[in-house]
Design brief:
The structure holds two protein chains of two kinds. In chain A, 53% of the residues lie in helices and 19% in strands. By secondary structure, chain A is an alpha+beta fold. The chains are: A alpha+beta, B alpha/beta. Bound molecules: adenosine-5'-diphosphate and magnesium ion.
Chain lengths: 383, 247
């Protein structure tokens, strides 16, 4: 006996109990939207801070400083860092953020020497519009990360003032690195002269090592080099650097993880309640079907199918809304000039739908069991 | 051996310390293709007997053998399948599924059978046609009158061509005209489809259509007409225009 012919029957029960189904779907969708949002933040955290075996990036910061305004290092450290064994290249970077608060739409200015693009430090970025040559030619030119450009609606040739710094968009770049996607790369001396004149001072050095296995040793060697200087350094792998700087946000995001599971529980309670009520409402219908020859097992299966359909459909709506919001907004959480993208990939979508389906099945089990154990003749007498 | 054989059939319900015995040590034979009317005061055990025969209730003791199958011994799942193949149940209050249209209600029992959509459609259409309700196939129960709902319920009961149709006061909730129509429909079905019809009724007039009338009181059969006299009436007597059914 093929089960497919019962699918229309279940769908009719869902669709024709319209008010109940819509309310349930609405609730499930809202909860799954929240679940997805939380998952998207956690995914962003993993992308920004998750270490992999082939990380080659180090960040050299001022020892005991935690924010771009207070980490001041002499730019001429660059040549000394370059001589440390294992270092492939060094880029002195000045970081200025458009907004000191934690916000979803922060532009992080990164001033770098124009020639750093020729030295392989940016081999992972891809210019999708405009060109590096145009950027090099003008001192106020900026290369925007795609997410910044998208959020602000900026194109090549646009001139814009962002918190007192006026730039001309010379190119748009894409990059697998969350930090590049949310940055505006400008000329180092342009940024040093903007605001207080701080020529010769940078925030940090971005270092690429020759081999991933040398990451820790090279970091130690760099810090050793400057230990007795007036401005000692603290060198981190880029991922740990983000994790340390954004630790407050990470705590919130991890806490939000619990909210995500709470949302799932909400879905369970909602669907459970809806199905329990509807099964109670339909005691007679189920007794009729049993009289017609439907087995307990079949009735139970139909009820579980119904609760699964409700929760998967609600999950699809909620997750679709979540995907729509995160891809239209391309939000990034920014702290101290570092960015955590709010975006979750196919894996999260699949996880959400899978969990919604599981929740639906679980929520249907108890009512299904109850419905299938009733005494048929007694059901007819009760009504 | 009769088609339906009840031997010492007893059903008791225990609620706390009180035990009710709606059906008490009943012996009854019903022939295949017969039309049996069941009468008796309220609470005399008519519905209980019907439910046992229909396999939606099980005997406390005694045996109930239908077509050679001791249905008291079937497992729940087997009994469900047996019902799907052998029983059409017509209720006093129709008991249609409210979210399904007339057509879908009639199709419901057919979903359990190994039929294609097209085959189901043919059977549903024929049952609706025979019940005289084909024009309302896309109406929901709430859009139908009582008599129309009962026609749909009858179509649902006959669509699988069951060997036994049980009807529990099928006209009890209808006005006189609708009741008469439903009654003649049931009689026609009994004749044309040849199934065994067991019907509870309070209307003495109904009994003239039935080949045999049983009276239940306090769970016991009052008079047990001899089989020779009151067995199934020959079909030709029931045909419209025949002697047994002046119309
Ligand atoms: N599930 C049950 N639990 C307790 N008592 C029952 C149950 N089903 C039927 N009865 C009792 O059995 C008796 C016969 O009921 P029923 O067969 O419905 O009578 P009738 O259909 O002739 O009016 C009634 O007294 C009724 O209350
Ligand atoms: Mg009754």
């Amino acid at each position: 006996m093929s089960g497919m012919k019962f699918v229309p029957l279940v769908l009719k029960t869902v669709i024709r109990n319209r008010r109940r189904s819509l309310l349930t779907l609405g609730g499930v969708a809202t909860a799954m939207l929240l679940f997805y949002a939380v998952q998207a933040m956690q995914q962003g955290v993993r992308d920004a801070t998750g270490k992999t075996g082939d990380d080659t990036k180090l960040v050299v910061y001022r020892l005991d400083r935690y924010c771009p305004f207070t980490s001041n290092l002499p730019q001429d450290y660059a040549s000394r860092i370059a001589r440390v064994p294992g270092v492939k290249n060094v880029v002195p970077v000045k970081v200025v953020v458009s907004n000191c608060r934690t916000s979803l739409d922060v532009v992080t200015f990164r001033g770098v020497p124009p020639e750093s693009f020729d030295r392989g430090a940016f081999s992972h970025v891809n210019i999708v519009d405009g060109s590096i040559e145009d950027w090099k030619r003008r001192s106020d030119a900026a290369l925007l990360g795609e997410r910044v450009a998208y959020r602000r609606g900026l194109k090549v040739g646009d001139r814009i003032d962002i918190s007192g710094i006026t730039i001309l968009v010379a190119g748009i770049l894409t990059s697998p690195e969350p930090q590049d996607q949310n940055s505006a790369y400008v000329h180092l001396d342009f940024l040093q002269r903007a605001g207080e004149n701080q020529v010769g001072i940078v925030t940090q050095f971005d270092v690429t090592v020759t081999d991933p296995s040398l990451l820790q040793a090279t970091a130690a060697a760099i810090d050793g080099e400057f230990r007795t200087d007036r401005e000692p350094t603290a060198t981190w792998s880029e991922k740990s650097f983000v994790a340390r700087a954004a630790s407050d946000v990470l705590e919130i995001v991890n806490f939000a993880g619990w909210l995500g599971w709470g949302c799932l529980f909400g879905v369970f309670a909602l669907v459970f309640n809806a199905i329990v009520l509807s099964v109670q409402d339909r005691v007679r219908d189920h007794a009729i079907m049993q009289t017609l020859g439907y087995t307990n097992r079949l009735i139970a299966t139909l009820i579980i199918a119904e609760s699964t359909i409700l929760s998967v459909a609600g999950g699809m709506i909620g997750i679709a809304a979540g995907v729509a919001v995160t891809s239209w907004g391309r939000f990034s959480l920014s702290v101290e000039g570092l960015s955590i993208n709010i975006y979750a990939g196919l894996g999260t979508i699949a996880l959400g739908l899978g969990l919604a389906a599981m929740t639906g099945i679980l929520a249907g089990l108890v009512p299904a069991r109850q419905a299938s154990r009733r005494d048929i003749a007694a059901c007819f007498r009760a009504v | 051996m009769a088609f339906i054989e009840c031997r010492n059939l007893t059903r008791t319900y225990t609620k706390g310390s009180t035990t009710i015995t709606p059906l008490d040590d009943l012996d009854l034979d019903i022939e295949e293709g017969s039309f049996t009317a069941l009468m008796g005061p309220s609470g005399s055990g008519k519905t209980t007997l019907l439910n046992l025969v229909a396999g939606i209730d099980t005997p406390t003791s005694g045996s109930l053998v239908i077509g050679g199958v001791d249905i008291g011994r079937l497992s729940r799942a087997k009994l469900a399948r047996w019902r799907g193949e052998n029983i059409g149940y017509i209720f006093q209050l129709y008991n249609l599924v409210p979210v399904l249209t007339a057509y879908e209600n009639v199709e419901l029992p057919l979903l359990l059978h190994n039929l294609t959509r097209g085959e189901r459609h043919k059977k549903v259409a024929a049952a609706l046609e025979l019940s005289g309700i084909a024009d309302r196939h896309d109406h929901f129960p709430r859009q139908l009158s009582g008599g129309q709902e009962q026609r749909v319920a009858i179509a649902r009961a006959i669509v699988t061509n069951p060997k036994i149709i049980v009807a529990d006061e099928p006209t009890g909730d209808l006005d006189r005209n609708s009741a008469a129509e439903i009654l003649s429909l049931l009689r026609r079905i009994n004749v044309e489809l040849g199934g065994t019809l067991l019907m509870v009724t309070h209307d003495p007039k109904t009994t003239q259509y039935a080949g045999r009338t049983l009276h239940l009181d306090k769970g016991k059969l009052l008079e047990k007409a001899p089989v020779a006299e009151a067995g199934s009436v020959a079909l030709h007597e029931l045909r419209p225009g025949g002697a047994a059914c002046p119309e």
